[in-house]
Amino acid sequence: MRGALAIIIAVVLAVCCTGCGITKLIDNEETTVMTESSTVTNEIEEDSIEKNISVKTEIAEDGLIAVFITNNNKVTVSEIELEVLFYDSDKKVVDLGEDGHDVVLPGYTVVSRIEPPEDGYATLDTKITAEVDEDSSYENHSEEVDLKYNFGSDNVIIQMTNNSDVTIEELEYIVLLYKGDKLVTIDYEEDVYDLKPGKTATEKCLVYDDCDTAKVYLNQAHTFGL
Questions:
Q1: Which of 21, 106, 130, 207 places its Cα 20 to 30 Å from the Cα of 69?
Q2: Residue 97's domain is classified under what CATH number?
Q3: Dist. CA 197–CA 106, nearest whole Å
Q4: CB of 107 closer than 8 Å to CB of 94
Q5: Is 188:113 a contact under the CB 8 Å cutoff?
Q6: Do 74 and 154 have their domain in common?
Q7: How far is it, in rounded angstroms, from Cα 51 to Cα 139?
Q8: What is the CB neighbour count within 10 angstroms for residue 112?
Q9: What whole-number distance in Å separates Cα of residue 152 and Cα of residue 189?
């Protein structure tokens, strides 16, 4: 009877503790044995990822639109697709601006440059879709890039030093030009290719407007693993 009772207790414990740790005595020592189903699978829902991505727009004096996208998730977001919808006074969509970013690290902000419709618009709205692909071969080395910039004579000098131990296949940066706190214009995104470990790439952005401040964002510093 005692043996039968022990079997019943063992079966009940096995059923109740599926997906948890079971503590039992082995050689008079307490040991926690994790059942196979206790492995936690981090299935990340796309809608929860998107809720943790903040989007802010800033319109420059020349009409260009800077869209600041910040990944507030604790994981790297593999792809972010941006849509900017332009409406007329009747709330009808009259144009669409699009951009995308790959492998955005937690806490990082990337910037898109969007051109407005030539015939004007009344209001705009932004929409993003995001995806986390744990099997992606892309890697972002932005944390290992030292980014410095300063005003030159009629330009902004940008210097990027690769402090990683791999050749970074593609870096992308974008320059925003300000007069005081007011955004004046946004330069086109620029790319630097195959920056070797320990090397510094020096770039310049010509300044044609009356600007006194620049902000430079590193949108990516990728290896692709292809």
A1: 207
A2: 2.60.40.10
A3: 23
A4: no
A5: yes
A6: no
A7: 23
A8: 24
A9: 19
